[in-house]
Design brief:
This protein is mostly helical. It has one helix and no strands. The model has no long low-confidence stretch (mean pLDDT 81).
């Protein structure tokens, strides 16, 4: 992915937005993993 065409010479805001995107993605990934673990545990608990 080439960001130089869309963001020419804007280094700091681009880096800030990339870090923000990474943090939001990590938070969403952790939420999805925790919800799937809780669903899996609940299904196993009710399955007995």
């Amino acid at each position: 992915m080439k960001m130089e065409k869309t963001f020419p010479r804007i280094d700091e805001p681009a880096r800030f937005f990339v870090a923000l995107d990474l943090m939001v993605g990590i938070v969403i990934l952790m939420a999805i993993i925790s919800v799937s673990i809780m669903l899996y545990g609940g299904l196993q608990f009710f399955g007995r």
